Amino acid sequence: xxxxxxxxxxxxxxxxxxxxxxxxxxxxxxxxxxxxxxxxxxxxxxxxxxxxxxxxxxxxxxxxxxxxxxxxxxxxxxxxxxxxxxxxxxxxxxxxxxxxxxxxxxxxxxxxxxxxxxxxxxxxxxxxxxxxxxxxxxxxxxxxxxxxxxxxxxxxxxxxxxxxxxxxxxxxxxxxxxxxxxxxxxxxxxxxxxxxxxxxxxxxxxxxxxxxxxxxxxxxxxxxxxxxxxxxxxxxxxxxxxxxxxxxxxxxxxxxxxxxxxxxxxxxxxxxxxxxxxxxxxxxxxxxxxxxxxxxxxxxxxxxxxxxxxxxxxxxxxxxxxxxxxxxxxxxxxxxxxxxxxxxxxxxxxxxxxxxxxxxxxxxxxxxxxxxxxxxxxxxxxxxxxxxxxxxxxxxxxxxxxxxxxxxxxxxxxxxxxxxxxxxxxxxxxxxxxxxxxxxxxxxxxxxxxxxxxxxxxxxxxxxxxxxxxxxxxxxxxxxxxxxxxxxxxxxxxxxxxxxxxxxxxxxxxxxxxxxxxxxxxxxxxxxxxxxxxxxxxxxxxxxxxxxxxxxxxxxxxxxxxxxxxxxxxxxxxxxxxxxxxxxxxxxxxxxxxxxxxxxxxxxxxxxxxxxxxxxxxxxxxxxxxxxxxxxx
Length: 633
Prior knowledge:
Number of helices: 2
Distance between the termini: 27 Å
CATH architecture of the largest domain: Sandwich
Helix content: under 10%
Shape: elongated
CATH topology of the largest domain: Jelly Rolls
């Protein structure tokens, strides 16, 4: 029976419920829009965490240089306390200088580089560069092929003139140069010998030089054509006067330096490098990436990047799986492959000295996991090596249980977006403060090393980094310069992100940065009932000039504008009479939206700022609603 309503009795009201969103995290581009955690966003382009963790609009960028050709890389050589900055664009290497007014200019210092990505390291106050064409060295003033300064090794000692007895191998041949030295010891039996046989034949036309030890301990230089003749095809030197017996017992008395065809292209064709050495010391250059030897890498002699011995190399795995890059994990070197059989894609080596004092780099482990896909994606965040695979960004970590090493995913929240990207091999990365920044196809993806979360949907990884993304950034390479994040473009521009400390630093060039934060698509606690959203409050982060637009998205409306709002703080240095305010409090600003969304099934709020020169941030969101009757078809 119908309930009898007594006169003057109040009709029962439907209770108002509330959803409060605060303590925001990053984005979740891998879950369905209805399954994203309330503190994360399924869509938040151009947002990033503030120092205290709240989502804020990223600063804009400004162009600092315009060069010729696509920007491939940037390097800094620190020598005697002075920083020498270089940028590789097109086929040119530029030296960048900063004027008193802060303006940057660039001058070409080398014009024959490969028009592709490059790599470089600093050792012995010189910069050593690889581009797949020529191994280069920069000393702060000039750039030249490393072969021009290559170390000439003494390959034999105690050699007899006939070359058949007494010789002791001393140092390996240097791949960077065809020059080498044989050292001979004259004895009583060979003191009359004038013919000296070299270790190699087929000499080049470069003049052969010789030195003969004198009785007073000095070395006398001997010249080809004057003191001796050379048979180049046979590798034979004939002295006009026999050098004789060594004046010092047990010491060599003849040194002959000559040149054969070099094998410099073995190193010239390598495309990337890293510093590593015995016990993890950073005193040798490891180089790889040659298309001729995709599974081979080479290392230089101790503290001598101009000397790559012909025996200092490793063959790692199969040729069908090229070496993609390096990571240093504690005191070991991890060499990453693209896709080895059975997923054995990371070779772990440790540098040691053998019983004779020579450096050896033994394989101590082979890690199973996803192969690397981008040679420029390797960077270390919080001392954790990160790299890009076809399934996302992975890390190498020591296991707390077994002590073995294995790969773990760190980018689950953006993993689905990364797997949809094309041409991942062109991706590049750097570490900027607390962020691992990955540039892929016009988007920057950020992993926040200061925010870690466990994700139950990926139980094989101990944690995931909270993530963000910035679309519309056409970066061909990324790097950090004096703490600022920079990127190069295909058109030759070098751009730098503003620090975001001033209101006018929120444009990309002349265009405003568009940023917004979307809540998950919420059922507000029930799928079976319709709801009416009665009020929404957005708590904005205070700035001297800020604001935005509030939209709601429901099963009935797509991005219906709820209201626009301004957040202003009075500042004598920034007075706008169109937005004049007496508010001088630097605290959270609560902005109400009273427009209702009636009889809806799902609700999503989008708060956007696309205004020029304006920062923007959120501290909290509250949604009040009432639950109505059952959903009917």
